[in-house]
Amino acid sequence: MYVQTRGPRIETVAEVTALAKIADVVGMTLASEATLACELGMEFAALCTVDNYANGLGSEVLSYEHILSTSREHRTRTENIVSKIIRKMG
Fold first, then answer.
1. Tell me: the pLDDT tens digits for 57-81?
2. In angstroms, rounded to a whole number, what is the distance separating the alpha carbons of residues 22 and 32?
3. 3-state secondary structure (DSSP) of residue 71
4. How far apart are CA 72 and CA 79, in angstroms?
5. Of 8, 11, 18, 66, whose CB count within 10 A is highest?
């Protein structure tokens, strides 16, 4: 299950502990946008990446720079996924 939090900030260890009881993935995007799109009658699709373990679950120190670094490290994989989707739609 996905739970959206209000960003833009990294969740605290206490928030992660509480959310882990009900969620597998926590993020700052998608749910609000999906809700609004549905309310407007828009079709939508989403592709989201998981760029870090939640605060207190992994060994790394979480920072915005760490999240950007991880995202950059896997950007080719994400680009390939988006390219495949576009080709199939075309």
1. 777 778 888 889 988 999 999 999 9
2. 18
3. helix
4. 11
5. 11
